[in-house]
């Protein structure tokens, strides 16, 4: 199947990028909430409203990330993404590796969370807990790279993830 490479990210792709990023930040900041809910349930008590709400939010926001990421990957496969901004082979490889690892986490982390919570699979829980440092390292590299491209190299890399007309 031959497909022409698009000149820009589609508006849907851009909205998905920023929505998923916001949901992941929520999970990283409030990740402890589901631990509090688990402890309250294990102690046989009834969790208070705030603990129950935030614990359930962790589950539903995590599922939303998984579903939205699958939709985004389908868009990547069916429509493609624009060619990378000009740069060395090494820069392209580094960007590709960071993007690939971010996608991997966006799929593996919610699945291991579901397996730990609903399936009681201990190993899945251990992998899931590793998600926090892994995400923080990758997001930091990604953001530093994006800002470097936009403000030092001035190649409008960030602009094209803000508007499909950039
Ligand atoms: C991309 C989506 C998700 C992210 C980024 C995420 C992130 C986190 C973080 C940062 C923690 C705290 C880890 C720590 O430092 O102790 C955590 C714990 C946990 N999450 Fe998630 N999570 C996601 C999705 C889910 C989903 C869908 C579930 C399903 C129920 C889930 C279940 C859990 C469980 C069971 C824990 C361990 C609580 C404990 O015993 O301490 N997560 N998650
Ligand atoms: C949890 C946070 C984030 C995740 C998981 C994430 C993930 C990704 C992924 C996988 C791509 C590859 C292209 C695609 O398929 O969409 C991408 C592109 C991009 N991201 Fe992020 N991102 C996050 C946050 C940010 C932030 C905060 C910025 C801004 C500083 C940013 C700026 C960009 C830019 C500019 C591109 C396009 C690069 C290009 O093709 O020129 N991202 N992001």
Automatic annotation (TrEMBL):
Cytochrome b561 bacterial/Ni-hydrogenase domain segment(s): 9-163
UniProt-listed InterPro entries: Cyt_b561_bac/Ni-Hgenase, Cytochrome_b561_oxidase, Di-haem_cyt_TM
Keyword Oxidoreductase among UniProt keywords: no
UniProt keywords, alphabetically: Cell membrane, Electron transport, Heme, Iron, Membrane, Metal-binding, Transmembrane, Transmembrane helix, Transport
Localization terms from the record: Cell membrane
Membrane disposition: Multi-pass membrane protein
Superkingdom of origin: Bacteria
Keyword Protease recorded: no
Gene Ontology molecular function: any one: heme binding
UniProt-listed PANTHER family: CYTOCHROME B561, CYTOCHROME B561 BACTERIAL_NI-HYDROGENASE DOMAIN-CONTAINING PROTEIN
Record-stated family: Belongs to the cytochrome b561 family.
Protein name: Cytochrome b
Organism annotation: Roseibium aggregatum
């Amino acid at each position: 199947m031959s497909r022409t490479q698009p000149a820009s990210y589609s508006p849907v792709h851009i909205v998905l990028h920023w929505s998923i990023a916001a949901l992941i930040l929520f999970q990283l900041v409030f990740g402890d909430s589901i631990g509090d809910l688990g402890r309250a349930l294990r102690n046989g008590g009834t969790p208070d409203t705030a603990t129950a709400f935030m614990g359930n939010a962790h589950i539903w926001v995590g599922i939303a990330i998984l579903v939205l990421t699958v939709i985004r990957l389908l868009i990547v496969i069916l429509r493609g993404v624009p060619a990378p901004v000009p740069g060395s082979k090494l820069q392209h490889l580094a960007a590709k590796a960071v993007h690939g690892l971010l996608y991997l986490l966006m799929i593996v982390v919610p699945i291991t969370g579901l397996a730990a919570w609903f399936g009681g699979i201990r190993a899945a829980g251990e992998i899931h807990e590793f998600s926090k440092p892994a995400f923080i390292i990758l997001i930091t590299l990604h953001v530093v790279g994006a800002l470097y491209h936009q403000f030092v190299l001035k190649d409008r890399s960030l602009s094209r993830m803000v508007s499909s007309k950039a």
